[in-house]
Amino acid sequence: MPCFTRLRVTLPGALVLLALALPVAAQSGASSTPNARALRVEDFYRIKSVGAPALSPDGRWVAFALTARLEATNAEPSEVWLVPTAASAPARRVSPEGSHATAPSWSADGQLQYVADNKGWRLDPATPTQVTEYERPPSRRNGPGGGELTLPAPNGAVTASLRNVPPPPRARAAMTEFEERHEARFKGVQFDWLDFQRDGQPFPVPNSADPAVNPPQEIFLARDGREQQLTRLGLRPQGLQWNRDATRLLFTADSAYRDERRYGASAVYTVATDGAVRRLTPDTDHQHTSASFSPDGRSVLYTKQLSTNAVIARKLDHGGATDLYLVPADGGAERNLTADWDYLPSNAMWSPDGRYVYFMGGVGGGNHLFRVAAAGGAVEQVNRGERRINSLTVDKGFRTIAYTVGLIETPADVYVANIDGSNERRLTRVNEEALRDLALSRAERLQFASADGTPVEGWLMYPYGYRANAGPYPLVVSNHGGPHSADGYAFDFKSQYLAANGYFVLKVNFRSSTGYGEKFLWGTWGGWGNRDGEDVMAGIDYAIARYPIDKSKVATMGHSYGGFMTNWLITQYPDRFAAAIPGAGIVNWVSDYGTADIARTKETEFYGTPWDPKAREIMIRQSPLTYADKVKAPTLFIHGEVDQRVPYSEAEQMYVALKKNGVPTKMIQYEGMPHSISGSWNQVHRMLNERRWLDQWLKKSPGVS
Length: 705
Known about the structure:
Elements: E1 6-8, E2 49-50, E3 54-55, E4 61-67, E5 78-84, E6 92-93, E7 101-106, E8 112-116, E9 119-123, E10 130-134, E11 149-152, E12 159-164, H1 177-185, E13 217-223, E14 226-229, E15 238-242, E16 248-253, E17 267-272, E18 277-279, E19 286-293, E20 299-306, H2 308-314, E21 322-328, E22 335-336, E23 345-350, E24 356-363, E25 366-373, E26 380-381, E27 388-394, E28 400-406, E29 413-418, E30 425-426, H3 432-435, E31 443-449, E32 455-461, E33 473-479, H4 493-500, E34 504-509, H5 518-521, H6 530-546, E35 549-559, H7 561-572, E36 579-583, H8 589-595, H9 600-605, H10 613-621, E37 635-640, H11 648-660, E38 665-670, H12 680-699
Parallel strand pairs: 33-34, 33-35, 35-36, 36-37, 37-38
Antiparallel strand pairs: 1-10, 2-4, 3-4, 4-5, 5-6, 7-8, 8-9, 9-10, 11-12, 12-13, 13-14, 15-16, 16-17, 17-18, 19-20, 20-21, 21-22, 23-24, 24-25, 25-26, 27-28, 28-29, 29-30, 31-32, 32-34
């Protein structure tokens, strides 16, 4: 039985946010307060971040998590807040004061639910001071494929369950007492499987190919007190859902999920309540994900992308398109809804009448809502503007949407609009107090041509107090990770901090970035660093020619692929950079192949493994370590101690090479950190030391105020 406890929540006025019904166009990119000061690194602890909003089923309320940073404890406490979509009242905290509250969501009957200090809480938005504790369903995770679940049918007459079907226990080999003693004394790890490491997880990770660790799951039905096993497929179904009439279930599954030498290639299945299974996508060369029934249950929507297995087997020079497809639920020919839309659709969802499919997509540095008719036709963009729409949520009637808006000049806030993008209202101004006396730097969008004439987009952030006749200013080039990602309209504290201390900051969406079409996306295949490096250099030249920038005081930095790009640039253009800061950057593709937790990037975009002559030649040619003797830029390496995506040994190799060649070099290794170096203390320490390095070599005046 559920356990209920009444709790009264006190809402201190100091924590109330302002709810302002302001259009986006009315926002100012920088503080207009007279004598506003420059951002300081201490402000990192003043700025709060908004989590994914959750719109109530009736469209009247938006709940969201608000996260702060505490210097004293290195903690990032979170609270749950609630705001009316009519902007008729300020947002208010509804989670208990002092608790760590996350994951706001809504029940079907319109109750707000969230987790606070490992307990589930529920409240009626009309009376948010009356909070009841409820017993949350147990979270049962059973391997990489997903967890067990129970799924009632829409009509309530039958319930489907997805459960593990583990194999019988294996008999343990007999040991003598002598052998047992030495087995007990062993200190270390033993493994005999391929997928033994994954960044950010304990080493070694469990063997996903072992049926005892990652057992198959089957679907069971319960009706009128009786239970029957519906499937005997020996797979790991994902995304299980009912059709409207409760006559069949939909799911995706990979028939080769236990083959450790293959990458994912899921197909779409349905199973009727009589046990009849139908595979809707017989194609084995593609990955099919995010399947969903149309509202009438007659069609199935899914995302389709060429599988990594097919790319490797065919030795292709591209990764293939990602598109939205429809197929009849009873089987038949599939239709591509986005064949003429040259971008990457995500988070697709049906309109309630089944006429349209709505989805998110990145175009250039922006991210927006799009739709396409289920009957076919052109893709339509729903909302517009130079910004990023993130974490979009929709009400049950499909009339209202809520989301956060990403901009360069200010942290994200919560907005709401009609489903067609009209009547947009800004509901929060979370950091109004923290930003009141700050002059955040603005960024200018750049469009220029690369060495081969390819159009490229970038953003140049101005230094604090910029005056055209006061330069020349130093320039820091910040390279994004991925490589298949993109910079754009998002608040970046580090870039603002560098700009506040007198630097121009340049970001370039080089070849391989998302948001510019497939040819651009796969434009670095077989040559990571070549065309994308030319794109970055073209952006630097464009900025130097048009802005008061000192060409002798240019630095490059970045993390992950941005770290590789930094290592690459200082080896290929040694006379152009006065300093460099590669974070978690690869320098040796041959060593990285066997020590990192992802081999597929080399097997696809480098055409194979290190023992394949063509691939090995590419890996050596595209490794910055090959050209370490050319580097002149003083280089600060940043790396996590237990990084398994780009192992620490990558930075160590280049550090030793530069030291051997007499280049000023420093290493900062963060204890216990994986690929993503997290924690406020670490992030602030990193920013301080990065700025010291830049000041030392670009300003010749070390130290931080």
